[in-house]
Amino acid sequence: MGIFVITIVLLLLAFAGIAIKIWGKKDGKFAGTCASQSPFLNKDGDACGFCGKTPDQFENCTEEVHS
């Protein structure tokens, strides 16, 4: 029973954290969510699988899918 309560509490904290982040951001948008922008995840410099941009093109990216 104790592990169940701990699990529920942790899930509630996760949802609360996401809700606070959405509430605190302008228009509730998460910035930089494309994994291709991360140098840690994209070590080879591959293009984004969603939009086709290379990592050096993301600095001036104004597309809604990346903001």
Cα distance spanning the termini: 41 Å
Mean pLDDT: 76
Structural class: mainly alpha
Number of helices: 1
In short:
The protein has 67 residues and is an all-alpha fold. The protein is 34% helix and 0% strand. It has two domains: 1-26; 31-67, no CATH class.
Task: Explain the overall architecture.
The chain has 2 domains: 1-26; 31-67, no CATH class. The chain has one helix at 2-24. It is elongated and about 50 Å long. It has 67 residues and is mainly α. The termini are far apart. It is built from 1 helix and no strands. The model has no long low-confidence stretch (mean pLDDT 76).
Q: Which terms summarize this structure?
A:
2 domains, 67 residues, mainly alpha, single chain, 1 helix
SSE layout:
Elements: H1 2-24
Protein name: Membrane or secreted protein
Organism: Ulvibacter antarcticus
